User: Which sequence fits this backbone?
């Protein structure tokens, strides 16, 4: 069973998505990831987007550690229901509606955050987690990253979690890799927006 590791909701158990369609981030990887993010001092007050959220564990960990707004994006009905339940647990502890759930495909949600007529983001994010299912192709991931790049705050951090056997994502114009870290079968890729010239 997954749990919130630290912060205001630390120790609270989270429900898991039934079946094997999702691949939860291990506590070891989650702890290392959030230790790194906290050392960079980017969580407190952040607007967080958790794409391919599964149970919502990454986004809700950010909420527990001081993010001001967390949006969990998931399309599978069972996962959406678990995200809503887990967000309710964390929001109750925080005594505030910090976490919300948006049902839909990641790409359609990202498209809704960008206004094509003005070429401006309707909403921007400071920290984004992407933990796509393994069957998601590298080309599909590249398309998602391209759409994501349009809704990032200038100093945003993007974290992509993949199998350590997966190649480095193809970063679209507007995003660049600045770090990576392997944990057994998992690798985390860290990217940030590139300043436009």
Assistant:
């Amino acid at each position: 069973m997954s749990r919130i590791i630290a912060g205001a909701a630390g120790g609270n158990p989270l429900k898991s998505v039934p079946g094997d369609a999702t691949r939860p981030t291990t506590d070891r990887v989650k702890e290392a990831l959030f230790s790194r993010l906290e050392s960079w001092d980017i969580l407190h007050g952040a607007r967080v987007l958790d794409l391919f959220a599964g149970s919502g564990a990454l986004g809700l960990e950010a909420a527990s550690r001081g993010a001001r707004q967390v949006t969990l994006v998931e399309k599978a009905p069972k996962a959406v229901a678990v995200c809503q339940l887990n967000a309710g647990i964390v929001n109750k502890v925080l005594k505030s509606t910090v976490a919300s759930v948006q049902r839909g495909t990641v790409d359609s949600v990202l498209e809704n955050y960008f206004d094509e007529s003005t070429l401006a983001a309707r909403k921007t994010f400071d920290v984004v987690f992407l933990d796509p299912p393994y069957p998601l192709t590298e080309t599909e991931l590249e398309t998602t990253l391209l759409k994501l790049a349009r809704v990032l705050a200038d100093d945003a951090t993007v974290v992509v979690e993949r199998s350590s056997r997966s190649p480095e994502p193809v970063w679209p114009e507007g995003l660049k890799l600045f770090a990576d870290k392997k944990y057994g079968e998992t690798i985390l890729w860290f990217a940030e927006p590139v300043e436009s010239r």
Q: What stands out?
A: The CA atoms of residues 168 and 189 lie 8 Å apart. The mean pLDDT is 92.
